């Protein structure tokens, strides 16, 4: 019996099984881990059997899978850290697109269909109906994604020209689907920010009422 042929066939079968199993993964982190294992296995198999094109392919895919896995793990860590600290959503910046705004520009109107959220880099922006001016580093528009009707609850106006970053709800949903851990911490973060905003609004209303009666 040709043992080398038997070993070669078994190795090819195992490698193929890893590839097929990888396609059954539904979430990104297990998929990347399995992809890395598959790359390592096929590189070793290709070296032994001198399948150099396959070896080169998986030597290219291996660092790509490692990079994407690290990116997703860092994303989950940053979201988790934000939940337990300052509720910042700056971790979304790598997935956002830059946009310049002019004074007087309306970014969105109340009751308008909501499709994206914004991160304020510079300039001055105000929620018209409540009169609240948003500071640099603030995220606005994230609650529209969770609203049943996906409608804006206020109008956002640019008071002084500046730069914002935007990300579509579709992109956030992709991250959510790819990584359930991200989705869990994102929902906790948005809920915490909602209660924080309600607390600030109540404090502002109480202050306004006190000034009116004095």
From TrEMBL:
Keyword Ligase found: no
Cyclic nucleotide-binding domain: residues covered: 75-175
Membrane spanning stretches: 6-24, 31-48
One Pfam family cited in the UniProt record for this chain: cNMP_binding
Keywords assigned by UniProt, alphabetized: Membrane, Transmembrane, Transmembrane helix
SMART domains: cNMP
CDD domains: CAP_ED
The keyword Transmembrane helix belongs to this UniProt entry's keyword annotation: yes
Protein name: Cyclic nucleotide-binding domain-containing protein
């Amino acid at each position: 019996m040709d043992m080398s042929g038997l070993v070669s066939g078994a190795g090819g079968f195992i490698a193929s099984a890893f590839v097929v199993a990888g396609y059954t993964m539904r979430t990104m982190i297990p998929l990347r881990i399995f992809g890395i294992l598959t790359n390592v296995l096929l590189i070793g198999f290709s070296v032994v059997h001198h399948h150099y094109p396959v070896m080169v392919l998986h030597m290219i895919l291996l660092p790509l899978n490692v990079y994407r896995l690290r990116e997703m793990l860092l994303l989950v860590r940053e979201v988790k850290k934000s939940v337990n600290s300052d509720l910042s959503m700056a971790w979304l910046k790598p997935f956002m697109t830059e946009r310049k705004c002019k004074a007087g520009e309306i970014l969105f109107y109340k009751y308008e269909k909501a499709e994206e959220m914004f991160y304020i880099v510079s300039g001055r922006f105000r929620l018209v109906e409540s009169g609240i001016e948003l500071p640099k580093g603030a995220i606005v528009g994230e609650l529209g994604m969770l609203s049943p009707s996906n409608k804006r609850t206020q109008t956002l106006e640019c008071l002084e020209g500046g730069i914002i970053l935007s990300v579509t709800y579709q992109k956030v949903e992709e991250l959510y689907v790819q990584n359930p851990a991200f989705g869990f911490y994102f929902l906790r973060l948005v809920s915490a920010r909602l209660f924080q905003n309600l607390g600030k609004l109540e404090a502002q209303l109480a202050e306004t009422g006190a000034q009116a009666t004095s």
